[in-house]
Write a structure and sequence with these properties.
Shape: elongated
Distance between the termini: 58 Å
Radius of gyration: 24 Å
């Protein structure tokens, strides 16, 4: 199909092809370069960087799981979000907790930063007992939050 597209639009208009390292893509890129030698077969640096960052995130799996648990709690609890927002305002924390996307490692970074900036407000709410992490999914979070600061 790719060969038909190149012939239809003019292969001479293309200088390179990039793609992931999957076997089918790799084979297609090699065949394409053999038929059109001026089309360079290049790595997809964005894809490879994303894979690298995803692997790097595995080193911080436990921390990212805790952060994700905290973010998920507030993502599903209007009660929790209300109390956190009130405490954030009192403490001058402008932004709340961000969710993340499984396909973007950078969104994990933004989620960690948002949870970190809200940690004092979260701790204050837990100490005041306005927030209770009392479900099975989040029961370990209270101890974690109280032990942090």
């Amino acid at each position: 199909m790719l060969f038909k597209l190149l012939q239809c639009y003019g292969a001479s208009k293309y200088a390179a092809i990039a793609g992931d390292g999957g076997p089918n893509v790799r084979a297609a890129k090699i065949r394409l370069h053999q038929q059109f030698p001026w089309i360079l077969n290049v790595y997809d640096p964005c894809h490879n960087l994303n894979l690298f960052l995803k692997d790097l995130g595995k080193l911080f799996k436990e921390t990212l799981s805790l952060v994700s648990g905290i973010a998920n709690y507030f993502g599903k609890s209007n009660y929790g979000t209300f109390h956190l927002d009130e405490e954030r305002k009192l403490q001058g924390v402008k932004e709340g907790i961000k969710s993340h996307s499984d396909t973007r490692f950078s969104s994990s970074y933004y989620q960690v930063v948002s949870v970190h900036s809200c940690m004092n407000a979260i701790k204050k709410c837990v100490e005041a007992k306005t927030l209770k992490f009392d479900t099975a999914a989040v029961s370990a979070l209270s101890q974690y939050v109280l032990a942090l600061y």
